[in-house]
Amino acid sequence: MAAAAAAAAAAVGGSQSPQPEVPAPGLALDKAATAAHLKAALSRPDNRAGAEELQALLERVLSAERPLAAAADGEEAAAASGGGGPGAAEEEALEWCKCLLAGGGGYDEFCAAVRAYDPAALCGLVWTANFVAYRCRTCGISPCMSLCAECFHQGDHTGHDFNMFRSQAGGACDCGDSNVMRESGFCKRHQIKSSSNIPCVPKDLLMMSEFVLPRFIFCLIQYLREGYNEPADVPSEKDLNKVLQLLEPQISFLEDLTKMGGAMRSVLTQVLTNQQNYKDLTSGLGENACAKKSHEKYLIALKSSGLTYPEDKLVYGIQESSAGTSTLAVQGFAGATGTLGQLDSSDEEDQDGSQGLGKRKRVKLSSNTKDQSIMDVLKHKSFLEELLFWTIKYEFPQKMVTFLLNMLPDQEYKVAFTKTFVQHYAFIMKTLKKSHESDTMSNRIVHISVQLFSNEELARQVTEECQLLDIMVTVLLYMMESCLIKSELQDEENSLHVVVNCGEALLKNNTYWPLVSDFINILSHQSVAKRFLEDHGLLVTWMNFVSFFQGMNLNKRELNEHVEFESQTYYAAFAAELEACAQPMWGLLSHCKVRETQEYTRNVVRYCLEALQDWFDAINFVDEPAPNQVTFHLPLHRYYAMFLSKAVKCQELDLDSVLPDQEMLMKLMIHPLQIQASLAEIHSNMWVRNGLQIKGQAMTYVQSHFCNSMIDPDIYLLQVCASRLDPDYFISSVFERFKVVDLLTMASQHQNTVLDAEHERSMLEGALTFLVILLSLRLHLGMSDDEILRAEMVAQLCMNDRTHSSLLDLIPENPNPKSGIIPGSYSFESVLSAVADFKAPVFEPGGSMQQGMYTPKAEVWDHEFDPVMVILRTVYRRDVQSAMDRYTAFLKQSGKFPGNPWPPYKKRTPLHPSYKGLMRLLHCKTLHIVLFTLLYKILMDHQNLSEHVLCMVLYLIELGLENSDEEESDEEASVCGPERCHDSWFPGSNLVSNMRHFINYVRVRVPETAPEVKKDSPASTSSDSLGSLQSSRRPKVLQRENSGTAQVFSLVAERRKKFQEIINRSSSEANQVVRPKTSNKWSAPGSAPQLTTAILEIKESILSLLIKLHHKLSGKQNSYYPPWLDDIEILIQPEIPKYSHGDGITAVERILLKAALQSKMNKRIIEEICRKVTPPVPPKKVTAAEKKTLDKEERRQKARERQQKLLAEFASRQKSFMETAMDVDSPESDIPMEITTAEPQVSEAIYDCVICGQSGPSSEDRPTGLVVLLQASSVLGQCRDNIEPKKLPITEEEQIYPWDTCAAVHDVRLSLLQRYFKDSSCLLAVSIGWEGGVYVQTCGHTLHIDCHKSYMESLRNDQVLQGFSVDKGEFTCPLCRQFANSVLPCYPGSNVENNPWQRPSSKSIQDLIKEVEELQGRPGAFPVSISSETNLSKEMESVMKDIKNTTQKKYRDYSKTPGSPDNDFLFMYSVARTNLELELIHRGGNLCSGGASTAGKRSCLNQLFHVLALHMRLYSIDSEYNPWRKLTQLVEEMNSQLGNEEQQPEVPVLYHDVTSLLLIQILMMPQPLRKDHFTCIVKVLFTLLYTQALVAVSVKCNEEDRSAWKHTGALKKNICDAEKSYEVLLSFVISELSKGKLYHEEGTQECAMVSPVAWSSESMEKYLQDFCLPFLRITSLLQHHLFGEDLPSCQEEEEFSVLSSCLGLLPTFYQTEHPFISASCLDWPVPAFDIISQWCFEINSFTERHAEQGKALLIQESRWKLPHLLQLPENYNTIFQYYHRKTCSVCTKVPKDPAVCLVCGTFVCLKGLCCKQQSYCECVLHSQNCGAGTGIFLLINASVIIIIRGHRFCLWGSVYLDAHGEEDRDLRRGKPLYICKERYKVLEQQWISHTFDHINKRWGPHYNGL
């Protein structure tokens, strides 16, 4: 057909004129016309001609020859081949396609038209990695369900268990898909099943698409074939990426088509799956050379991938195919030959035969043809299949993946694609293994597969039709096959077992996880899992797979050298077992829940046992594990155990029907037991030479994510074995495995051949603890799921208080998501609320941020604390201690038990009947002998025993008494006493009766040197333990002698005998002799002294030992008195609590009571023993040695008391220091630091140097300084004038404009002044430092400046990485470690004037004014005393430099002439202003609270003032310009007008900022200042201030108001006190200013300023007071610091009057009865009306020209509110959704780490290189511009706040917490977060008080990179 098409094309070209020969590029019109013409042709009923024409056109447009050949040959060729390079032709082709699809119309209209027919029932939005999506567990059917943000927010999920997450691998939105989620969770758009009302798609709309798309897709495939050159090695990433970049537009075009909706998708599906189309286009027949070439390339690619094209007769296959015939011994399956060394398969069979092992049937993989078809054959029948093939070949390019997934909403496509995917599964695995980028590729694979396999219906269909399970298992098997090594477990030389090598990349990088995760995913579907469990062949293969992991990562104990290289492969091993073995196991288990599924369990157990048997054979295991080896990986054992547990718990199977014979049980028990013993060895530090990694393994084994699949099944399997094997055999095995058999002798000395003495004790503790766990754990032996959950939770909470999320993490849940106990499920929450109390997060100011914690309820400690469970679940041993400490504390606190309690004994839940046999362990002689021996040894104080051992011994005895079955009926039978005893140790096996059995003599083997040999009395503590080098097999000299002496029970000999019997019983193995194993290899010959036999006289029974122990523990003779002798009731109705607190003494009493209750004999014997006065326990004789220890004890006690005393003293000193220095808000009662406490009568202040510790005054040659931190601050600039705080913008509309901040207003004012007035005068009229002002704070400690210098030197030489930079002068205060960066010299002399309370009014105000002026006029030198360069003056200079360098240049230089002295002058008094203003803010913005401020004791303003004053006096103000003149003298009219014309005028006095004037006046005076001068300055300035207030009012009034006031005032002008009446003054001001133009042009825009309310006299008074208050506050603060006067406290409404009287403005005779009038504070130095008129004249002359500005400058906003951070929304999601997709305003990209400034709301890129300017990243830059070096940013993607302070930064924490009071840093959990107002307040407080540096501890340098 292709040939026909070509011929037709030639004909058409000739005959039909409308079609241009070669499509002319760029002629859209022509294209449209052609398209329209073709569409018409195709619409005719007979459309053959049209079809052929179209084909010909497409052939030409889409010919694959030109572009890619060119691209492949490199750019030069491309340029030659047609000018436009490769890109142009492609674009042209795309244009044609768009035109043709649209059939002549516009492409966009066409898209819209198609969209109208979209029956969008599914969302199907596809996303890639890092996309933020949601998962709702309440709505999800499949655990993988996910929703895009839009669908999630459109749906209703209130109260659901949902979370937000960052997609790891990409995904797709499941909204609308009822297979994956419940319909109730669908969003509004996808709720309606809309298919019914969508009209049918008109035929002609998509007709063109059906013709064009096949060619387009074929063209794409040809490109892919062309671009893939199969090189000798793996194709380089670069080439592949190049091809992909070229194809970007084509694939994007396809992707856009998929987004047009359902109608277009179904066309695409038709095209992609139509097999006829594919065959016609790609067969490569016909004469088209290009097509042929491309087909050949395709075949080559197939072959090189190790795949065959079935038609070819040759089989191209990798070696695997041929290997199908060989079978490997034991494992027996294809392809493993290569790994086992170069053995040919035939040799292998022979070797196998020569082994004398019983042959077992071997498992082969099912016939190799089936394998072959799975692994090596691919046949492509449609475009879809070949597209997927190339997608895989190119390693899953993101665009292709997205296109393939975008098609999924089409049901037909979904099925076809899934089948194709399965067909390519083996190929995917091969590509994945070879890939360099396996991580990215894994993610992309899972991105696809999770969409396909989460759907149960689909998974079932594919399983049935495509053998999905066979394929998956085979592929996994093949994958692991490639990294097998020979196992070295047990029998290194002859082992036939192979295991995976954990060091290989495949395991180390988790390359297998996509395949395993798919497998787990499909096993979660019941229908699929059932197929798996029914298919015997599959189970066999799977067990084969699992056995690869059995025994991997073998550890061998290093005995001599420490390992050189610590391998970290163990993590790979644990991950592999969990993911590849355990998780599929949990998946299968979740389907075995009911009786009907018994068959499945039987199958699994059967094949599991077969695999285990094969394994034992393969490693040549007989009965003894190889020494010094351990592997933690026994997945076969664990499969077996877990299916057994399920069978008994859920399926009511009879346990014995699925258990193997005794011999197998013995073998099964060995390796899990070996792990338990090794754990004890590792914790006893016996494996230290293996490095830290072995500890890591021991910890991972019990860690919460693994314990469920590792230690729990192991312990359970041991419990099963113990319940079925002979108890004596089991117990002796345990002690032998733990290597403590030799320790269990009555002799005081022994030799241990296998254990060093220092490890004996902890190994013995380990063995006993293991027995206790084995006997008391009920996890799989009858506890219900809820009980288990409760026990786990209690254990975790007892160790430590936990947050909700850490509890979720620590409680092992079934790893399989469908198993039922889902974290966060209902039962979790209800159990949590039952056992724990929530402690809400608390905040100490300056403390660390607490999270919400759960802590156990009291009754949990009282009844449920279970040490056994705690021991089982602790990763770190210290957690056990922590739990005990908390338990002790609880008992003390609740008064239940005062002393040191022992772990409490807890009654267990009853055993499931199948496991009753477990209790026989407690009633076997071997255990009783061990217990008896240990009790005896403890009583005799033998070495290496501990309280812990005793505790466990008593626990076991008590367990035995609780679980004794037979009540003794034959009381008389036991009268026969010890003489008639037929066995030398104990008569029977019941503990109750054995307890009272007296043992008279024991024969022991002891070293000749032991004390027993010398026939001593029973030995006291043996002094040294002899070499532990004697063979553990004791020689068989133990022929019984009938003398009634008990033999030393040789545990080991017994055990071997039992084992021998069992072996002999199984007849098949009868001919096998057990290899004799001697342990000679461990014993050093000749080193041990000879053993001899000694006979010890014992004459004790367990009961008598217990009673004596009671005496020993209580330290009193005869301390035990049977309680029933007094109160017979105790025996009749015993009230033994289920749970008992207490220590050893109470434990012994409890046991004796239980023993007495269980048999009358015991009761009688106890009474008898107590009647005999017990002989003193041997060790009570005080030997000389002991006396020595006693003295030592006493000395120690005294030393301890001394130390206690010292510590207490130290603590009290520290406390007083803390109170004075560290508090952020300390109570007022504190005594201030020395600095301010100097009493008035002392003339010189005394300072302590915290470095050298000397006290003394500060002097010129050795000045003292205060430790200070200088920092630039813009907090003041953030004050705003309205109370409503700004909100953080969360929509595009809300934006923040900073024009209303204090800083902006002051800037505008200064620049306005500078426009019209003389620069030098402007710089005296205002203050700067609202932004970037220098704030000085101190911790209050002083040091000599020379001491400080040497301290800095030592810091510089100290190479320790500090959190601060010494080069920048930073250090921490040597005493309180507060951060600091400078030292402020203290001025010699007193802090406080000699008589600060002196009456200010001794001189008239006029005299004082003169004095002030004279003092100011003096030349500005340092005081005479230090006219020469002294140390002090040098320090003053240097600290001034520091102050200047603290802030950036732009915040210091405001003058028009840079570097002018006026600038420095302005800067200096502004520093004083900044510090006063900030202190005012710290006090809450007013002085109502009064008192010495909290900052008072740490204030350095006094010292700062001295430094500033000394420097300011160096700049004398020209007396002409000194504002003081203008305030206090009348100037002749003429003067002021002079020079107005030729240069800019001075700033009028009324435009001056009065507070700035105050500081200038005071700092110009010589220090220390006299109080009356200060008051005088304040009085004068107050008159100016008051006038300013009146002027401002007059401007604010409207015309009528003004005339009214003018009138009222004029009437009162002649009253006596006219100068003190605001009405008079106001009327005067108005009349004066009316002379100028100030009040004119009352145009419309003025009305804005006019307040509509008419001014009453009250409102007027209030306005005037408010206007003056800020000045009064600052002045009072200044007075408080300079003269040390306390501030009075007051109500807010009387603040004005209180402050003014405190400042001495109020005349003393002022009465408080009538309402207070602010004007009464006025004290005019010159006649008021004259001076006012002079001031107003200046204003008038300015407003002549600039009325507008004149008015603006008069209205000053002086009432600033406190600064605040932005107000944040309640729910974090609102911030997140808006900002995480917001584009950056600088680089217009969406930042990777977006952040937002919490001070001003600016959006910035954290660490974004895109926005870097002069090596500063954006956040650092912003912190300098917005906060003068302090930035507070909220990191959007992490929900945490980061603080930048100068060159350092720290993570502050989060102010958003979840419902459980926890942070969610990095949004890992994705739970909804809510604002925590307290935390935000703390943050704001730290910002305002500038204490970030002191409170946050973890600072690091940011190197401008944030």
If you had to describe this structure to a student in words, what would you say it looks like?
The chain has about 1900 residues and is an alpha+beta fold. The protein has 72 helices and 31 strands. Helix 27 (about 535-545) packs across helix 29. The protein starts with a helix and ends in a 5-residue tail after the last strand. The N terminus is likely disordered.
Key words describing this protein structure:
31 strands, flat, 6% strand, three-stranded antiparallel beta sheet, alpha+beta, six-stranded antiparallel beta sheet, 1906 residues
Brief sketch in words of this structure:
With 1906 residues, the chain is of the alpha+beta class. The protein has 72 helices and 31 strands.
Uncertain residue segments: 1-28, 64-86, 310-370, 816-824, 968-983, 1014-1045, 1066-1088, 1176-1186, 1220-1242, 1391-1400, 1420-1427, 1534-1542, ...
Class inferred from helices and paired strands: alpha+beta
- The rounded Rg comes to 46 Å
Morphology call? flat
Average the pLDDT over all residues and give the rounded result: 78
Total strands: the figure is: 31
As a percent range, the share of strand residues is 5-15%
Helix content: 40-55%
- Sheet with the most strands: spatial strand order: 25-24-26-27-28-31
Q: How far from one another are the termini? A: 65 Å
Main pleated-sheet profile: 6 strands, antiparallel
**How many helical stretches?**
72
